[in-house]
Amino acid sequence: MATMQDYSTQITGVILAGGRAERMGLLLLAGEPLIAHGIRRLRPQVAELLISANRHQDRYSEFGCRVISDAPDCRFRGPLAGIWAAMDAARTPYLLTAPCDSPLLPPDYGQRMWAALEREGAAVSVAFNEGYWQPVFALLPVTLRGDLSQWIAEGQGGVGRWLQQYQPARVEFMDWPAMFRNMNTPEELARLEAEYRGLA
Predict the structure, then answer these.
(1) What is the pTM of this model?
(2) Is the backbone of residue 117 left (phi > 0), alpha (psi -120 to 50) or beta?
């Protein structure tokens, strides 16, 4: 495993914007699309940053990242399909995931996820907040792509259940709760807009 100094060269990041609420990433926060905030925060932490999107690909491509889409038979299967596509596209040994509607990622997100792998000798690391796993915030090796393909084909469950098979390292961000302020509705986005100056 790479040292802390060169961990970022081993990681491809992916912002997951391929679910049914695909326009959320394009809604504005402080005058910029939500996804632009995520890109600005995550891109310096990885070797390459991908955007997983099944619609509005031309719009997402304007942000300067490679845009990937789910396999045709996996469209709208949730984050699992986007992670699977990103594993296939990644040119590095590891994949770091984040949802497009969580614009306030910490500047050391990748470093902390990587440190947990090293500390615990785990296969994957997953964020944990207020007593709950946050499975769309995960760091995992792309060598699990075959396992994920079979899991999806068998319809065994969502991303959280799949990741728990690997006894993930738990990564808490108690000092950065804004990371989990995801925006699933316009009302939640409006509340974050009102609070943004204190959180960013």
Answers:
(1) 0.91
(2) alpha
